[in-house]
Amino acid sequence: ILKKILKVLDDNTKLKWLFINHNAYDEKTKEIKMISAINKSQKGFYSDGKQAITDIFTFSRTTPMFITACIFNTKTVKEIINNKVDNNLVDPLEYSFYCASKGGVFIFDEIFIHNKWGTTSWSSQVIEVMYKGVFSVLVSLKEYGYTKKQVNLMTKENLKFNLRIHLSRLFRFEILALDLLRFYDFKMLKKVFNITLNKVTKRENDKQK
């Protein structure tokens, strides 16, 4: 694996970011939770790093935050590290987006990593990280040159998987939750309506018991 990675680096000295494909499995049940982190058409060199990482995120969401699967250009990643005021758990995701925005990237389509599903060092903070942290990175990507279309696409995709959390934060009138409303479309509003209706129905049924 290392030889393959080093060869790519030797052949492409100006790469800004490399992504290593991986799957994920449940150690207890041996069930495969994620077959691949990329779609079948993604592999090799991409001159447009922003579009490459956008495609990865819309396919497998936060896999670019999985630091084991990412190789950063040292000089490029230092640019963002040196300018950060504080550090947080979603920094690796921001590093990936930043580096990918600066030039060419390479995607290894062969699976080199078998990741244990659900084993994170920040499991006790999973909601804050996957909700507040990830969305904060996504809505700020225009600063790195990502288009409105790319930001909208990734944010909507992440909202689909965090809809219930988002609704709970809306009722608290959190600033981020209110800001995310602009990314809703008709399908998501319909889903919100169904979730709310089911909750009301369940509450009424519980009262009658």
Low-confidence stretches: none
- Kindly report the average pLDDT value: 88
Percent of residues in helices comes to 40-55%
**N-to-C SSE series?**
HEEEHEHHEHHHHH
Mind describing the biggest β-sheet? Answer: 5 strands, mixed
Number of helices in the DSSP assignment: 9
Give the termini separation. 60 Å
Structural class: alpha+beta
Strand content: 5-15%
Please explain how this structure is put together.
- The protein is α+β, with helices and mostly antiparallel strands and about 210 residues long.
- About 50% of the residues lie in helices and about 15% in strands.
- Strands 1, 2, 3, 4 and 5 form a 5-stranded mixed β-sheet that branches.
- The protein is globular and about 70 Å long.
Which helices and strands appear, and what pairs or packs with what?
Blueprint: H1 2-11, E1 17-25, E2 32-34, E3 44-46, H2 49-60, E4 70-72, H3 74-83, H4 91-100, E5 105-116, H5 126-138, H6 148-161, H7 163-170, H8 175-179, H9 186-208
Parallel strand pairs: 1-5
Antiparallel strand pairs: 1-2, 1-4, 3-5
Helix pairs in contact: 2-4, 2-6, 3-4
Give a brief outline of the structure.
By secondary structure, this protein is an alpha+beta fold.
Note the main attributes of this structure.
209 residues; alpha+beta; five-stranded mixed β-sheet; 9 helices; globular
